[in-house]
Design goal:
With 342 residues, the protein is of the alpha/beta class. 42% of the residues lie in helices and 22% in strands. Strands 1, 2, 3, 9, 12, 13, 14, 15, 16 and 17 form a ten-stranded mixed beta sheet that branches. A hairpin with a 2-residue loop joins strand 6 and strand 7. It is globular and about 60 Å long.
């Protein structure tokens, strides 16, 4: 006879409750900028990164508790430091430094580790029951992508113009300073075996940290099917948009160290956007530089065109952004002519 108090009955009841609870949750992809994890001009120390991550996760606690969450994070400052360390080691020993795809993998592990610790501290029992995991993420790119001819992705620390001229590597202006730039090809897809695992984890409400630094860029040999790493850093916002669409996420939050999206930024007629349609954001495209806000806006447009929403703003304002009280929301819900300023 089947007993309502049997272990099997209790497990079935728990599974049913978990299914209902998870079904009601929105799935939000949260993209954390590398500069949100390390403030501009700060020394790149573990203590500084831990402090910023702790503050960031504190801003995200309510979002983590009430939604399915997939994290993607930047790694520009971190991978740049590893590249400098490799160059110093080469100068000292003559040994070739690690290639950029390997450095991408290293930062996925190190930043994911720190995020996991702070999520565990913030969520406690709830996080331990749901599960939190970091996934190394290989993203297929096209070796003939034109980005390899025009590096735009910032990595590493900031330099003065004089320091940048002595670096011996491609640099571009980032605000008042200069930083090294590397190729940033378009992501094509997450490799199949990792996508299978990611879907399984996400569908079971596990908090997954993946696509760190835009993932590990790889090319696929069409003849033997072998994957090979390539020197590049994929933009993490483009990867967040791609993963969000693939997973069927409801929303995308692009969190950085600026309060939202502005037109005429830094000028006397600067205006901050509260909400806008993707069509209006496309018309304003000249306002968004290719190495910083440009990919964020393009990723948001790509994501929302299939009926989803995206919010761009400061990590510290994350909870307010979901309430429509901070940041910039990009959505099709008000029609193609919609734009509203603060």
């Amino acid at each position: 006879m089947f007993s309502l108090n049997s272990p099997l009955s209790r497990r079935l009841s728990s599974a049913a409750s978990s299914f209902v609870k998870n079904y009601d949750k929105q799935h939000v992809v949260v993209a954390l900028g590398g500069n949100a994890l390390l403030k501009r001009g700060e020394p790149l120390t573990i203590d500084n990164q831990r402090k910023n991550i702790r503050e960031g996760i504190s801003s995200l606690t309510s979002i983590l508790r009430n939604n399915k969450v997939t994290f993607v994070h930047g790694n520009g400052p971190q991978v740049g430091l590893l590249a400098l360390q490799g160059a110093a080691y080469q100068q000292k020993t003559g040994a070739l430094p690690m290639e950029l795809d390997v450095l991408d993998a290293e930062t996925e592990g190190s930043i994911g580790y720190m995020l996991e610790q702070e999520i565990d501290s913030a969520l406690g029992k709830d996080g331990r029951e749901r599960g939190v995991i970091t996934m190394l993420t290989q993203i297929v790119v096209d070796p003939d992508d034109t980005a390899f001819n025009n590096p735009t992705k910032f990595i590493g620390p900031i330099y003065s113009l004089e320091e940048a001229n002595k670096l011996g590597k491609p640099v571009k202006q980032d605000g008042e300073f200069y930083r090294q730039v590397v190729a940033s090809p378009q992501p094509i897809q997450l490799i199949d075996q990792q996508l299978t695992a990611l879907k399984l984890l996400t569908n079971n409400d596990v908090i997954v940290i993946c696509g760190g630094g835009g993932g590990i860029p790889v090319i696929l040999d069409p003849v033997n099917g072998r994957l090979t790493g390539i020197e590049a850093v994929i933009d993490k916002d483009r990867v967040a948009s791609m993963l969000g669409k693939t997973l069927g996420a409801d929303g995308l939050m692009i969190l950085t160290d600026v309060e939202g999206v502005a037109v005429n930024k830094g000028k006397s007629n600067e205006r901050w956007i509260l909400s806008a349609s993707p069509e209006q954001m496309m018309k304003l495209g000249d306002n968004f530089p290719p190495g910083s806000m440009g990919p964020k806006v393009e990723s948001a447009i790509d994501f929302v065109q299939s009926g989803r929403w995206c919010r761009i703003g400061s990590l510290k304002d994350a909870a307010l952004m979901l309430e429509g009280k901070a940041g910039t929301k990009i959505t099709s819900e008000h029609g193609p002519d919609h734009i509203e300023y603060y």
